[in-house]
Write a structure and sequence with these properties.
Helix content: 25-40%
CATH class of the largest domain: Alpha Beta
Low-confidence stretches: none
Largest sheet: 4 strands, mixed
Strand order of the largest sheet: 1-2-3-4
Distance between the termini: 39 Å
Number of domains: 2
Order of helices and strands: EHEEEHHEHEEE
CATH topology of the largest domain: Double Stranded RNA Binding Domain
CATH superfamily of the largest domain: Ribosome hibernation promotion factor-like
Radius of gyration: 20 Å
Number of helices: 4
Number of strands: 8
Length: 175
């Protein structure tokens, strides 16, 4: 794998680089040699954050972790990506797509636990027309991170969601 390591508000020392190579190096058994991994380290007050993005054809493997210690964050993000890749393996084999980004011996292994998606709860509710601003207020009142509503302006089903930094996003479907 090719690592592109950058830092925001932090000097990326050789020790940090070595920790990234060691911990994320465990992931090299999953990916082809020419796979790129974008690693961004950042520090905000007491928060030590690492973001790892591995772009593939049509998909992105991404994880981020925050802790008090950058080395702990590196350990945790490597575990998250490994779980994502192993879970995604079965889908890739079934669909025969993106296989060029993984090593053949990894795809041929049979010892993968089948983590099927299971819906354990279902809700039904009336979707009443409202404006996006009103939907944001309703979402805050409910304490949720997203809210589905019928847009009073377009009469289509939309979703508002919380973003980082106390901002909101709006998803409007295109048909």
């Amino acid at each position: 794998m090719n690592y592109m390591i950058s830092g925001k508000n932090i000097d990326v020392t050789e020790g940090l680089k070595q920790a990234i190579y060691d911990k994320l190096g465990r992931l090299e058994k999953f990916f082809a040699e020419d796979t790129n991994a974008q690693v961004t380290l950042s520090v905000e007050k007491e928060r030590q954050k690492i973001e790892v993005t591995i772009p593939m054809k049509g998909h992105i493997v991404r994880a981020e972790q925050v802790s008090d210690d950058m080395y702990v964050s590196i350990d945790m993000v490597a575990e998250i990506i490994e779980r994502q890749v192993v879970r995604y393996k079965k889908k890739i084999i079934d669909q025969s797509q993106d296989a060029a980004f993984f090593q053949d011996r990894f795809l041929e292994e049979e010892d993968v636990e089948d983590d099927e998606i299971q819906i354990i709860r279902s809700k039904r509710f009336a979707v009443k027309p409202m404006y996006p601003e009103d939907a944001c207020v309703q979402m805050e009142l409910l304490g949720h991170s997203f809210y589905v509503f019928r847009n009073a302006e377009t009469n289509e089903v939309n979703v508002v969601y919380k973003r980082k930094g106390s901002t909101y996003g709006l998803i409007e479907p295109e048909f």
